[in-house]
Design a protein that fits this description.
The protein is an all-alpha fold. The chain has three helices and no strands.
Length: about 130
């Protein structure tokens, strides 16, 4: 159950961080022609995402405490080597989730760039 929760909380933090970054980029790229309503909408989204991100960090802190409790319990059942393997697994699980998300983002960006490139070549093919 702990490992499943770890997976969910790490993915939640990554998702919220990405969404918050996109909103902040949108806010930074607003120009003078942007309506006050659009600006206010983005500011409200940013405020909500910041609060959600803080809540998710709190969940992660609680999960870290649970990890220590689980580790203490497992210490009485596992050998030192098995316990070390478990600790390594938990650390790698988070790292691999983060790496997977980064790779997925790179693939998505590459697909978008490829589509744009393909679309830019379409008018030339019609000639």
């Amino acid at each position: 159950m702990f490992i499943g929760d770890l997976d969910k909380v790490v993915n939640l933090l990554l998702s919220l961080s990405g969404r918050l970054a996109r909103v902040e980029n949108a806010l930074n790229n607003l120009d003078d022609s942007t309506s006050p309503g659009d600006r206010q909408s983005l500011l409200e989204k940013q405020r909500m995402l910041i609060q959600q991100h803080e809540d998710a960090k709190e969940l992660k802190e609680n999960l870290d405490r649970r990890e220590r409790v689980v580790l203490d319990i497992l210490a009485s059942y596992l050998s030192e080597e098995s316990l070390a393997d478990y600790e390594h697994f938990v650390k790698m699980k988070s790292a691999l989730i983060i790496e997977q998300r980064e790779l997925e983002d790179k693939i998505h960006l590459g697909e978008e760039q490829l589509k744009c490139l393909f679309d830019s070549l379409q008018p030339e093919r019609a000639k």
